[in-house]
């Protein structure tokens, strides 16, 4: 049978209530002692030798993030960090620019492409792809710079929606036979 432990706590008065500030330090102190339970009466004076308290082990440091591969084949692999992000970024720029040109001139997407849009698209694709690949080849992970609303997951979802929007815009204009607006 285990020996009972005695815990001591100090009650708080109304003036000693803890403050719940964001960065306030909070500590708990607890004392424990074991009562001898060897069948003797409470008035007996025999004591059992106590072992010194064992120091608490410090927790291990958090594991480091795995090193990001900078190999060309890993960065541009099907499940790598670059393809979907680059396509999503191009789709976001493409959708916004297609809608802006359509609202300003009334041309549909296919007319925009046939009127010199291919050169602008290729130039934008090269610049945006290089700008997206340089940090990845330096070993910067996509998640390392994402916080709050501007997270890497939000960018992925915005890119996916823009890809669907660009395809839906082109199909709708093709079926309708004219510009959407």
TrEMBL record:
Gene Ontology CC annotation, any one: membrane
Residue ranges of the region described as Disordered: 31-69
Protein location: Membrane
Keywords: Membrane, Transmembrane, Transmembrane helix
Biased composition (Pro residues): 50-65
Recorded topology in the membrane: Multi-pass membrane protein
UniProt-recorded name of the protein: Chlorophyll A-B binding protein
Species for this entry: Cynara cardunculus var. scolymus (Globe artichoke)
Taxonomic classification: Eukaryota, Viridiplantae, Streptophyta, Embryophyta, Tracheophyta
């Amino acid at each position: 049978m285990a020996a009972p432990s005695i815990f001591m706590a100090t009650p708080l008065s109304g003036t000693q209530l803890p403050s719940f500030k964001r960065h306030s330090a909070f500590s708990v102190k607890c004392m424990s002692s074991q009562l001898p339970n060897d069948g003797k009466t409470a008035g007996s004076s025999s004591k059992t030798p106590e072992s010194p308290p064992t120091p608490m082990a410090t927790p291990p440091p958090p594991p480091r993030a795995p090193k990001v591969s900078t190999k060309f084949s890993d960065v541009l692999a099907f499940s790598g960090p670059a393809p979907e992000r680059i396509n999503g970024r191009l789709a976001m720029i493409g959708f916004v620019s297609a809608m802006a040109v359509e609202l300003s001139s009334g041309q549909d997407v296919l007319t925009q492409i046939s009127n010199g849009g291919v050169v602008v698209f290729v130039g934008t694709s090269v610049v945006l792809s290089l700008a997206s690949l340089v940090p990845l080849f330096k070993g910067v992970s996509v998640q390392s710079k994402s916080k709050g609303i501007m997270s890497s997951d939000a960018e992925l979802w915005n890119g996916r929606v823009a890809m669907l929007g660009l395809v839906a815009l082109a199909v709708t204009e093709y079926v309708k036979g004219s510009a959407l607006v």
